[in-house]
Amino acid sequence: MAESPDTIESGKTPVKSSRLLSLDVYRGLVMLLLATSGLGLAKAAAKSDGAFAKWIVFQGTHPEWNSQFGFLGLSVWDLIQPAFMFIVGVSMPFSYRKREALGQNYSQRLRHAWVRALMLVLLGVFLQSWRRPETNWVFTNVLSQIGLGYGFLFFLVGKSYRTQITAGAAILIGYFVLMLTLPSGLENWKAHFENGPSFPQQVDLWLLNLFPREKPFTGHPYATLNFVPSIVTMLMGLMCGQLLRDASVPASSKLKRLLIAAAALLVTGAICGVTICPIVKKLWTPSWTLYSGGYAIALLALFYWVIDIKGWNKWVFPFVVVGFNPLTMYLLGIMAKRATSDTLHRHLPATLFSGTAGPVVEACLIALIFWMILWWMYRNRIFIRL
Question: What is the pTM of this model?
Answer without folding.
Answer: 0.94
